[in-house]
Here is the input.
Amino acid sequence: MTRSLGRRVFLLAIAVVVVGSLLPRVARADVWSALKGRIFVSDTEFGSGYPSDAAMIAAVKKQSKAVIKGSGAWTINLAVFLKEAAGADKINIVYYDVSAKHEQVNFSEVAVKPDQKMVELNGIALSTDLGFVKGHKYDVLATRLIGGKEKVYAKTTMTLK
Here is the structure.
């Protein structure tokens, strides 16, 4: 009886291994899939050379800030994860003041590759001279104009303090 029980346990263990190997593997959390459609803002440059995708995801989220401090001038860094490849050689980073009437304050054109899905932008200077207001909240969008309409690839909201 002990031998029979041992054999059953052994066969059950083999069955679990076989069935487990036949199931589709769970995809690892690659950075783009986990963060697509989002822009992360920081007052320091985003790092590189992470030991794993999970480590990069955690670091980007931890470094990201919803409030950027300055005194009439702010320097921001963006980690942009487009929801799909740009499909062109340029995208726009557009800033809308949502504290007022959702008015466009500024934009910049960024060169990308048509198949690019992640963009890192460092040292972006914002200031009151460019129309930004301390204490206001801004939607930051990665867009393209297609047929006269703004297609949004990624977005976030930040406040300048």
In short: Residues 68 and 160 are 5 Å apart (CA to CA). The two ends are 75 Å apart (CA to CA). Residues 28-160 form a domain with the Immunoglobulin-like fold (CATH 2.60.40.4070). Helices lie at 2-22, 31-35, 53-63.
